[in-house]
Design goal:
The structure holds 2 protein chains of 2 kinds. Chain A contains 11 helices and 12 strands. Chain A is an alpha/beta fold. In chain A, the strands form 3 sheets. A 7-stranded mixed sheet of chain A has the order 2-8-7-6-5-3-4, with helices on both faces. By secondary structure, chain B is of the alpha/beta class. In chain B, strands 12-15-14-13-16-17 form a 6-stranded antiparallel barrel. Chain B has a 5-stranded parallel sheet with strand order 3-2-1-4-7, with helices on both faces. Chain B has a 4-stranded mixed sheet with strand order 9-8-11-10, with no helix packed on it. In chain B, a hairpin with a 2-residue loop joins strand 5 and strand 6. The chains are: A alpha/beta, B alpha/beta. Chains A and B meet through helix 8 and helix 11 of A and helix 1, strand 2, strand 3 and helix 4 of B.
């Protein structure tokens, strides 16, 4: 007997998913495209026989399609277990490949995802000279500070294209050019950028770029690093010769197919979808400002991706807000989902100079595939109640 | 109580609060489960999976099975201020505190009630073995498990919002119900007698961390008899509690007990068992859970430590915040810092902290 049937649970209110920056459902087309590679076409892409050839063909085709989506060559694509591995491989692998060459410097920003920040800290433990760039109150990297730090003793510079909490877009073309001029390798974490901005290796001179499939309709645990030809890279894993030894391990063919398919659909729909999302997000933002005038929108003065709204209401805290929202059926997040459970103010907002009170009250709502006009109406309608509830929970009446 | 009303249940991941939540779901309340994060527990350490402290995961799994929402509430700051700081200060003063009493007073039945208010929950529920009958707090049906000793300090106005679903049951019944409901992992969990923030029962380690290695309470001093004779040395009076035998010099004709601590002289006073007996006690920080508190001359029962038998007592003196009791039959090891809880039969009248 299914366990749930013994209990009568209360009908939850109609649910609204506003956490697309955390993850998205797998698209039906993606699921359909990958399924044969779990069963009928299950071969190991390294095998000689018919099954192997079939898997190899699919894997190679997927790599070509992924490359095409990034303006890259197929041999410049390295598939990983997701964004975290992609970031680690680029940052740590890129730094280690240059270690001992008179370039101890490793430059990043304090607002990077932990996958980059912790990899940078690891490089520092291995002898790297870690430098974190100043962030302006707008949420942008301070370019003067970047010029001062990106010198000829720097091995690698890593700056995220889009911040995952605020949605602020960083000046990646300038930073990549600055790095190139200093002779440093440039990595950008484009996990929140792909599908929202033009991400093209032919027009922006980045050397490494990371993407993560589950942010745009592929399954979790598939990602990729773009490695520009000629960029030095030390692998993280050792074993077989798959992916030219850069990332050994039996290829995950179904997930490679899924990533390629999701990237293609995302690019095809990007223009129209971004317009739609921007309209939804802007209406949400304007309506919340109208109904809760004291709300503070983070990164409001900067260029932002169209799907993220990051805001704090004074006198509340993220934990209470998220709980009150969830009890109304609304899924949001306090920023990076990996940080849930901690009340320390967001490291991103702290770096932007936001006060600890506002920094620990931040709520991120991210619209996407599932979001409708009715969803926005519902969130706007209940937000004042949610704020009241969260204030009461904080004991701030 | 209207079915459908919202109830906030404090879920520790243990069997009692899990069954409490299940019973409320069965009674068709709108149940919201929360687990309080009260102290840094090492979940932030890199070798632990993100946010999956075992007990919290257990609570989350039970909530998922019951089909109720579950949240982790971070109450570390308040808990540290209201409970841990007092715990340390009391030991430093040569007293033996009960942090669970203050946790119930300040955290579970105050801060958590504020959270309940915030989400529109009319009721707050826990897995305590105690009962609320007609707005009064009574001992749990299982006398062996009764936890009212720890609950005397809660604000009386909370009683009408309090639900204690396992208070009517024995521990064996609770466990049987957990098995019947197939609650994952919780049915056969061993009983925890520890103070939650004192891993392995080593409270001295907490004192060392908070007070420093060389604090007077942790520094060597003399062990003296009631007559003033020096019989030994100790490594810090905070390691001792009234009534304790362990850690005292042997060789005396009768076994020695700790009779008192003198923090100002850093002395531990020892004596024979008879010297432990008290004929009266004074307590302060009094909280009453009844409309009409007892008066001078009234006879009541008193419990002076968890699981100690109830003793007869007569109210000798009473002020707004303190009482003195005389004990017709003397009681052993009345320890400053412990609670004195007054009962009339199964009903809790109130309590205070022994001076």
């Amino acid at each position: 007997m299914p366990l749930g049937s013994r209990y009568i649970s209360h009908m939850p209110p109609a649910s609204v998913y506003l956490d697309h920056a955390a993850t998205t459902p797998v698209r039906a087309e993606v699921l359909e495209a990958m399924l044969p590679y779990f069963s009928a076409k299950f071969g190991n892409a390294s095998s000689t026989h018919r099954w192997g050839r079939e898997a190899r063909a699919a894997s190679d085709a997927a790599r070509e399609r992924i490359a095409a989506c990034l303006g890259a060559q197929p041999d410049e694509i390295c598939l990983t277990s997701g964004g975290t591995e992609a970031d680690n491989l680029a940052v740590l692998g890129g730094w280690r490949a240059q270690f001992g060459g008179g370039r101890p410097g490793i430059v990043a920003t304090p607002i990077e995802h932990k996958a980059v920040l912790q990899a940078v800290h690891q490089a520092a433990r291995e002898g790297g000279d870690e430098r974190l760039l100043r962030i302006a109150p707008s949420g942008h990297v301070d370019l003067d500070n970047a010029r001062a730090h990106i010198r000829d003793d720097v091995a690698i510079v890593s700056v995220m294209w889009v911040n995952n909490e605020t949605g602020v877009v960083q000046p990646i073309a300038e930073l990549a050019a600055l790095s190139k001029a200093a002779g440093a390798v440039f990595h950008t974490d484009a996990v929140q950028a792909f599908g929202k901005l033009a991400v093209d290796a032919r027009t922006v001179p980045f050397d490494f770029l990371s993407v993560s499939g589950h942010k745009f309709g592929a399954p979790k645990s598939i990602g990729a690093v773009f490695v520009r030809r000629g960029t030095p890279l030390t692998p993280l894993f050792f074993g077989g010769t798959q992916d030219r030894g850069r990332r050994p391990g039996t290829e995950n063919v179904p997930y490679a197919v899924a990533l390629a398919t999701a990237m293609e659909f995302t690019l095809r729909e990007q223009h129209a979808e971004c317009e739609r999302l921007r309209t939804l997000r802007d209406r949400l933002e304007a309506s919340l400002l109208a109904r809760v005038p004291e709300i503070v929108i983070h990164g409001r003065d900067a260029e932002r991706v169209p799907h993220i709204l990051h805001a704090s209401v004074p006198g509340t805290d993220s934990e209470s807000m998220l709980m009150a929202l969830d009890l109304q059926g609304i899924a949001a997040s306090s920023g990076s989902a990996c940080q849930s459970g901690s009340v320390t103010p967001s490291h991103v907002l702290s770096a932007m100079g936001v006060s600890p009170e506002l920094g620990s009250a931040a709520v991120r709502m991210s619209v996407g595939k599932l979001t409708t006009d009715a969803d926005i109406d519902r969130v706007v309608a209940i937000y004042p109640d949610v704020v009241r509830s969260a204030r009461a929970m904080s004991g701030a009446f | 109580m209207t079915p459908g009303a919202r109830v906030l249940v404090a879920m520790s991941g243990g069997v009692d609060s899990s069954v409490a939540a299940a019973l409320l779901v069965r009674q068709r309340f709108d149940v919201v489960g929360v687990t309080m994060k009260l102290f840094e527990d090492g979940a932030e350490l890199p070798d632990r999976p993100c946010c999956s402290l075992d007990a919290t995961s257990d609570a989350r799994r039970v909530a998922e099975l019951l089909g109720i929402p579950h949240y982790v509430l971070n109450m570390v700051d308040h808990f540290s201020r209201d409970i841990v700081a007092d715990f340390v200060a009391e030991y430093a003063r040569g007293r033996t505190p009960i942090p669970c009493v203050r946790c119930n007073t300040f955290t579970k039945f105050s801060d958590l009630v504020t959270k309940a208010d915030g989400i529109g929950a009319e009721f707050v529920a826990t897995g305590h073995y105690a009962r609320v009958i007609d707005g009064a707090l009574h001992r749990g049906a299982d006398d062996n498990k009764d936890q009212t000793y720890f609950l005397w300090g809660i604000n009386r106005s909370v009683l009408r919002r309090l639900m204690l679903p396992v208070g009517e049951m024995t521990k064996a019944e609770t466990r049987a119900l957990a098995r019947e409901l197939q609650l994952p992992r919780v049915a056969d969990k061993p009983e925890s007698q520890e103070i939650c923030f004192v891993p392995g029962g080593d409270y001295v380690q907490i004192l060392r961390r908070e007070l420093g290695e060389h604090a007077p309470a942790l520094s060597p001093g003399r062990i003296v008899t009631v007559d003033g004779a020096v019989v030994g040395e100790h490594e810090g009076f905070a390691r001792y509690t009234v009534g304790q035998r362990r850690g005292l010099p042997g060789g005396a004709s009768d076994p020695l007990y700790v009779i008192a601590l003198r923090p100002d002289q850093r002395e531990v006073v020892v004596g024979p068992r008879e010297a432990l007996l008290g004929h009266s006690l004074a307590a302060s920080g009094i909280n009453w859970l009844v409309d009409e508190p007892p008066r001078i001359g009234d006879s009541v029962q008193v419990r002076i430590r968890h699981r100690a038998p109830l003793a007869q007592a007569v109210i000798d003196g009473i002020t707004a915040s303190s009482i003195t009791l005389s004990l017709p039959s003397p009681v052993a090891a009345i320890s400053p810092g412990q609670s004195a809880v007054l009962y009339d039969g199964t009903r809790v009248l109130g309590g205070g902290i022994i001076d």
